[in-house]
Amino acid sequence: MSEEPAIRVKDSRRFTDQGDAKPDAPEEKQTAAPAAEPQPEATQPEAAAKAAPEPDSKAFAPPPATFELLTYSLVMQAEMSLMGQGEGEPPDLAMARHAIDMLGVLKDKTKGNLSLEENRLLENSLTELRFRYVQVQGELTRPGGGS
Q1: Is 82 exposed, middle or buried (0-12, 13-18, 19+ CB in 10 A)?
Q2: pLDDT tens per residue, range 33-73
Q3: Number of structural domains, the chain?
């Protein structure tokens, strides 16, 4: 009789429930971009001349797609809208509200599926942005505000 292999579950979270770093936490893994499909070699000289140059090793490599990166991206959109896009530009409350609402949708749709760290990031970001939104809105509606 062959025995089925035991199922092993490993907790790969880097933080404890209290938010402290675990001493045995795994290092952040960098994922490599998938290798390009091999292209057939050009048989004519002009086709070889048109071939793309070798990729530069110093080219920008985007960070891995994570929940934290998605959250920070939406937070930055809201913050930039609350500050105004350029010197003398007023804050764009509609765009800030949209980014804050997107974070709210993310929170609702991921409820019960987030790690403690991810949930705290989302909750804290929403609280801070909502407070800042009300603050900026008050400054703009106050007499003499908005300039």
Answers
A1: buried
A2: 555 555 555 555 555 555 555 556 678 899 999 999 999 99
A3: 1
Q: Give helix 67-83 / helix 93-109 axis angle, nearest 10°.
A: 160
Q: Is 85 part of any domain?
A: yes
Backbone φ/ψ region at 84: left (φ over 0), alpha (ψ -120 to 50), beta: left
Flag whether 57 is in a domain: no
Helix (H) or strand (E) holding 143: none
Count of residues for the chain? 147
**Bridge partners of 21?**
15
What is the token pair recorded at 49? 């001349």
Q: How is residue 119 annotated by DSSP?
A: H
C-alpha to C-alpha distance for 22 and 7, rounded to whole angstroms: 23
* Closest by Cα among 31, 25, 27, 36 to 64: 31
Domain residues for the domain of 92 are: 64-141
**Contact 105/122 with Cβ under 8 angstroms?**
no
SS3 content of the chain, % helix, strand, coil (to 5): 45, 0, 55
Q: The whole model's pTM is what?
A: 0.57
In a domain, 41, yes or no: no
Beta bridge partners of 15: 21
> Which whole number is the average pLDDT over 73-78?
96
